[in-house]
C-alpha cells in the first residue's frame, strides 16, 4: 500500500487538477521529431523536472495551465506568433539539406483514440482531435547562429509549405464518420470534395513532414510548424472564437548544405491579419468553397516544394 502525507496528497491532487484543466483547454503539442534517423522527444509541458526537457530541440509551446493556441486578436503579436512566446530549447538537431524532418504531434485528449481514419498512432498516444484547417511550415535563420538563445520574435519567417484544402480529394469515409461524434462535423459536407490539410495530417497518424530545402546554406535555423484549426468560427461577441493557431518550433542545424540563403521573410506578427479572411473564416457557411491559402507566398525557389505534393503519396486511412 502507498501512503501519502497530507502534503503529498495535496500535491497529487493539485497536479491532477492542473492536468484536468489543461485537457479541457488544450488540444495537443509536438510529441517529437525525426531527423537524419535520430528521434528527439518533445518537451514535457506538465513536469519541468522531466529529464527529457534537458534533451529536447523543440521549444515548449505552452505551460500546462496556460493557453495552448493563438487566437486572431494576437495574430499581430510577434512573440506569440513566432513560437507562442517560448524561450529557446536546450538542444539543436542536425538535419541534412534536402532531407525530411518528421514532426509527430499528440492530442491532449483521447476522443479519437483508436477511431477509424486516424492512421497508425502508437498505443498510449492520442491522435490530433480536429480535422478542419491548415498545415503550414516556415523557417527562419537564427542570426546569432545559436538557436538556443535566439529570440524568435525577431525572426524573419519564410514559408516553405502550406496545405489548405485540396478540392480534388476528400476525407476518408472512416475519418468522416469519426468526426460525426465530435461537436464539429466535417465540412465540406458529403458529396462535396475537399480535403483539409489537417484531415490529411490525422490520417497520416498525426505526423507531418517538412522538407529542408536542398542547397540551403549550413547553419542554425528554426522550423515553425503551424496547425491552423478553423472549427470555431469568429464571432464578434466571443473573444475565444476564430481560427486557432497551434505553433511548434524546432531548432535545427542544417548540414551537407550549399550556398543558398533564405530570402527576406516576414515578421511573425505580420503573417496573417487579425481581422483577415483566415482569422474570420467560417467553414460551416462556406463549405470550403472559397478558401484561399493565407499568408505570404511560398519561397519562390526550386528548392521549396509544397507539402501536398509529398503528402499525396501518403496512404490515407492506414489503420482502418
TrEMBL record:
The keyword Disulfide bond applies. Residues 27-286 form the Auxiliary Activity family 9 catalytic domain. Pfam families: AA9. It comes from the Eukaryota. Keywords: Disulfide bond, Hydrolase, Signal. Residues 1-26 form the signal peptide. The keyword Hydrolase applies. One of its GO terms (molecular function) is hydrolase activity. This is Glycoside hydrolase.
Amino acid at each position: 500500500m502507498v501512503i501519502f502525507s497530507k502534503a503529498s496528497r495535496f500535491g497529487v491532487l493539485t497536479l491532477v487538477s492542473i492536468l484536468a484543466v489543461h485537457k479541457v483547454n488544450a488540444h495537443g503539442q509536438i510529441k517529437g521529431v525525426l531527423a537524419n534517423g535520430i528521434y528527439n522527444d518533445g518537451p514535457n509541458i506538465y513536469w519541468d523536472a522531466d529529464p527529457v526537457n534537458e534533451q529536447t530541440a523543440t521549444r515548449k509551446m505552452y505551460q500546462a495551465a496556460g493557453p495552448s493556441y493563438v487566437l486572431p486578436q494576437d495574430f499581430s503579436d510577434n512573440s506569440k506568433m513566432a513560437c507562442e512566446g517560448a524561450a529557446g530549447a536546450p538542444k539543436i538537431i542536425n538535419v541534412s539539406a534536402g532531407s525530411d524532418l518528421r514532426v509527430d504531434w499528440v492530442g491532449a485528449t483521447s476522443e479519437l483514440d483508436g477511431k477509424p481514419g486516424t492512421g497508425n498512432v502508437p498505443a498510449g498516444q492520442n491522435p490530433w482531435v480536429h480535422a478542419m484547417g491548415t498545415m503550414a511550415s516556415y523557417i527562419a535563420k537564427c542570426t546569432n547562429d545559436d538557436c538556443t538563445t535566439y529570440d524568435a520574435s525577431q525572426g524573419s519567417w519564410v514559408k516553405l509549405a502550406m496545405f489548405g484544402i485540396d478540392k480534388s480529394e476528400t476525407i476518408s469515409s472512416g475519418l468522416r464518420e469519426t468526426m460525426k461524434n465530435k461537436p464539429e462535423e466535417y465540412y465540406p459536407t458529403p458529396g462535396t470534395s475537399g480535403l483539409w490539410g489537417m484531415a490529411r495530417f490525422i490520417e497520416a497518424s498525426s505526423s507531418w513532414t517538412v522538407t529542408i530545402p536542398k542547397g540551403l546554406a549550413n547553419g542554425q535555423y528554426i522550423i515553425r510548424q503551424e496547425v491552423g484549426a478553423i472549427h470555431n468560427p469568429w464571432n464578434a461577441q466571443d473573444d475565444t472564437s476564430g481560427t486557432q493557431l497551434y505553433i511548434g518550433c524546432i531548432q535545427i542545424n542544417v548540414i551537407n548544405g550549399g550556398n543558398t540563403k533564405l530570402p527576406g521573410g516576414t515578421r511573425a506578427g505580420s503573417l496573417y491579419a487579425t481581422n483577415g479572411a483566415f482569422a474570420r473564416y467560417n467553414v460551416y457557411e462556406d463549405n470550403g468553397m472559397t478558401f484561399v491559402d493565407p499568408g505570404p507566398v511560398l519561397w519562390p525557389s526550386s528548392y521549396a516544394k509544397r507539402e501536398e505534393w509529398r503528402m499525396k503519396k501518403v496512404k490515407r486511412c492506414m489503420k482502418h
